Amino acid sequence: MINLQGVIPAVRNMKDFDRILNSKQKYIILLETRLSLLRHAVKYAQKMDKQVLVHADLIQGLKSDEFGIEFLLRDIKVDGLISTRSNVISHAKKNKVTSIQRLFALDSQALEHNIKIINTLKPDYIEILPGVVPEILEEVHEKTGIPIIAGGLIRTKQDVENALNKGAKAITTSFVHLWEL
């Protein structure tokens, strides 16, 4: 399992991808990438000594079924998978690839439902969106014992500090100005 901590860049476009390759950051999260670009991007990032986590649900042209996930793991050789889908997390765990279950904290019922699923799946990390609700970060960690990543609506240095102070082990953000914190 990858040891995620601090701010982790969530890349939405190739311009930001090129920028992060020349940084000190060790990890990259690829969001909203086209399937046709994925192999080259992952291979190039790994050549630059980066580890690549891919949000499987957001890869354009990929179906997040058993065969799509097998393709990401065996052919593309991603270092980790992020998903809201249980089947993706299960496949990642079976293949000993870092698994991050993305959880949207929409309301109390959705939160409790997701916590039940997470306690069954036991992903390596839980990414909670929005990450600007520190009390939810603490609550989910207390109920699962799984390391928390705060993501979504993290816009300022204060947002990063608040999440880390409330127990988040890492922060994901696409705001470039926060990547070097």
TrEMBL record:
Pfam families under this entry? G3P_antiterm
Query: Which spans of this chain does the record mark as coiled coil?
Result: none
InterPro entries in alphabetical order: Aldolase_TIM (IPR013785), GlpP (IPR006699)
SUPFAM superfamilies per the UniProt record, alphabetical: GlpP-like
Q: Does the keyword Signal apply?
A: no
Source organism, top-level taxon: Bacteria
Which key words tag this protein in UniProt?
Answer: Glycerol metabolism, RNA-binding, Transcription, Transcription regulation
Q: Does the keyword Nucleus apply?
A: no
Report the function annotation for this chain. Regulates expression of the glpD operon. In the presence of glycerol 3-phosphate (G3P) causes antitermination of transcription of glpD at the inverted repeat of the leader region to enhance its transcription. Binds and stabilizes glpD leader mRNA.
- Name-wise, this protein is Glycerol uptake operon antiterminator regulatory protein
Organism whose genome encodes this protein: Heyndrickxia vini
